[in-house]
């Protein structure tokens, strides 16, 4: 699991537009997204990190035991790795990622809470 350096300011943190995990940009660059790297392909790509993450997010949830957490289920993160997740993320995934999700039969639901159940 990635750790956030104590000197990191919240403005430097970025949230993945697909899963909403929050990491330092260097963690995305070094390891990619721990939940959706197969689709987002951020590892080693600053341009892809800029396109697939954002600094515009609200709230932070720390998820330790995702499968047992009602908050993780509510946030749709119960199948993801432990870590810090944004409550709401502003922005949309790139069109190529959305097209890939659609081709796999997966409906994209933005994490800005505009598409709530």
Automatic annotation (TrEMBL):
GO process terms (BP): regulation of DNA-templated transcription; transcription elongation-coupled chromatin remodeling
Gene Ontology molecular function terms on file: RNA polymerase II complex binding; zinc ion binding
Pfam families in the record: Spt4
Record keyword Transferase present: no
Occurrences of domain Spt4/RpoE2 zinc finger (ranges): 13-90
Subcellular localization: Chromosome, Centromere; Nucleus
Gene Ontology CC: chromosome, centromeric region; DSIF complex
Keyword line: Centromere, Nucleus, Transcription
SUPFAM superfamilies for the chain: RNA polymerase subunits
Chief place where the protein resides: nucleus
Domain of life of the native organism: Eukaryota
Family: Belongs to the SPT4 family.
Stated role: The SPT4-SPT5 complex mediates both activation and inhibition of transcription elongation, and plays a role in pre-mRNA processing. This complex seems to be important for the stability of the RNA polymerase II elongation machinery on the chromatin template but not for the inherent ability of this machinery to translocate down the gene.
Protein name per Swiss-Prot or TrEMBL: Transcription elongation factor SPT4
């Amino acid at each position: 699991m990635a750790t956030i350096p104590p000197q990191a300011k919240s403005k430097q943190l970025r949230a993945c537009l697909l899963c909403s995990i929050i990491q330092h940009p260097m963690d995305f660059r070094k390891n990619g997204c721990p939940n959706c790297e197969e689709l987002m392909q951020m590892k080693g790509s600053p341009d892809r990190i800029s396109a697939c993450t954002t600094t515009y997010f609200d709230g932070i949830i720390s998820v330790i035991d995702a499968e047992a957490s009602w908050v993780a289920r509510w946030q749709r993160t119960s199948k993801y790795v432990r870590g810090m997740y944004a409550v709401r993320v502003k922005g949309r995934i790139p069109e190529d990622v959305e097209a890939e999700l659609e081709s796999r039969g997966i409906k994209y639901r933005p994490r800005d809470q505009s598409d709530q159940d």
